[in-house]
Amino acid sequence: MVVGLFVLGVAPVAANAAGRTDGYVIDHVATKEPVVFLTVDDGSHLSRETNQYIRNLRIPITTFALPEQINRHRRRFVNLLRQTGMTFENHSQTHRIVSAMNYKDQRAEICAGNREVERVIRRRPAFFRPPGGGWNSDTVRAAKSCGLSRIVLWNVMADGGRIIRADGGTGLRRGDIVLLHYLDSLPASLEVVMREASRARLRFALLRDHLPLPAKTP
Ligand SMILES: [Zn+2]
Fold first, then answer.
1. Does domain 16-210 have CATH number 3.20.20.370?
2. Number of Cβ atoms within 10 Å of the Cβ of 12
């Protein structure tokens, strides 16, 4: 069984399982283009200030929020979708660590995440991000069976205004997937990320524009 797990805030290492899972599980994007990817999780608090900040900057963000949280801030999120092209992916239904469950329960959790996001946002998620970054080979099987095209981890953490790379390096590099959360500190953290991106001459892009999706999702 292929297992990838790390604890948030301790070791920002996403299992590099590309070779073992045919590229289905990724923590960065192999690209020649000067782009990095902002992913923002959880959405427990999308304040008016953060909402306005994202809207004013029009930065492309891939959101991995829970259905309940998207629902709570539905109007703000739907406006961000319209105004900034924000995309909404699957972060499970209840934020339980899926790798601790059997296959059947993992599948139920992930498929329910899809259905709920689609119900609120009217767009179907394409990617799954396992809560806490914990996944195993059953997660891959379950996500595929729920019609998702990738499991997306991350290789850079940027909450708290500091860039922490999984490889121990500094700054940002092309293809990085940056993890942030919907906290009150998000605008301050984004400032730091934007400064680093401009220093490295990188622009922000959406994962969906750089990861080929299947022609038709089931
Ligand atoms: Zn989360």
1. yes
2. 22
